Amino acid sequence: MNIVLLGAPGAGKGTQAKFLVDTYHIPHISTGDIFRAALAEGTPLGLEAKKYMEAGELVPDQLVIDLMNERLAKADVAPGFILDGFPRTAAQAVALDEVLAQSDRAIDVALSIEVDPEVIVKRLSARRTCAGCGRITTAEEGESCQACGGKLEQRVDDNEATIRNRLSVYAQQTEPLIDYYQGKGVLVSIDGDRSVEDVWADVKAASEK
Ligand code: AMP
């Protein structure tokens, strides 16, 4: 099962990806998580990506494509994978198809989780991530994670100006991929402005088709 999760930042891709991992036991590959980890470790990749991430701009295609070609060559993705935050441009989508075709693979389903941009601005401004267990929650939970006691942190790019820029980059560069996957007959659109459980019911049903 090779799944692509499409949807604006804050649409709930990461949350739904975790449910998919628990169900299918296949790797969740988030380019944003890879860049944040590289940045935390201070690697050349992280330092290169930093300026784009902090401004809410996309990291250059070739950097992302090289990174993902390497990742998708690893043995753990043979049973399938969940891509979250990649591809984000037409060039990335084409490169993805090309690298998969080399090993007779293809995307089985592209799930587009759709949420109104103003709802996203509110959601992302309140989003917090636990530094301990990685759980995603909201500012309403306070300073510490209810699950593990870890510190709840806000991403540097979750401030209103950067959120709005990320949404406009999404509309211009990533939204056209909805048509791309529609044309391939693998697109499923899902209303993401509902409870996590309701969205999951549709995501699960679409992934079982
Ligand atoms: P995310 O966690 O998916 O919202 O990604 C955070 C940031 O990482 C984005 O705003 C971009 O700067 C960068 N990024 C993540 N994935 C990609 C990608 N596929 N192409 C270009 N930049 C990316």
Brief write-up:
The chain has nine helices and eight strands.
Describe this structure in words.
By secondary structure, the protein is α/β, with parallel strands linked by helices. It has one domain (2-115, 172-207): Rossmann fold (3-Layer(aba) Sandwich). It contains nine helices and eight strands. Strands 2-3-1-4-8 form a five-stranded parallel sheet, sandwiched between helices. A three-stranded antiparallel sheet has the order 6-5-7. β5 (127-130) and β6 (136-138) form a beta hairpin. α4 packs parallel to α5 (90-101). The protein starts with a strand and ends with a helix. The structure holds adenosine monophosphate. Adenosine monophosphate binds next to α2 and α3.
- Number of domains as seen in the coordinates: 1
What's the SSE pattern?
EHEHHHEHEHEEEHHEH
Biggest pleated sheet: 5 strands, parallel
Strand order of the largest sheet: 2-3-1-4-8
Which small-molecule species are bound to the chains here? adenosine monophosphate
What is the assigned CATH homologous superfamily? P-loop containing nucleotide triphosphate hydrolases
* Radius of gyration of CA atoms, rounded to a whole number: 16 Å
Number of helices: 9
Name of the CATH first level: Alpha Beta
The structural class is alpha/beta
**Any idea what the shape is?**
globular
Helix coverage percent: 40-55%
CATH fold-level label = Rossmann fold
CATH architecture group name: 3-Layer(aba) Sandwich
Low-confidence stretches: none
The N- to C-terminal Cα distance equals 10 Å
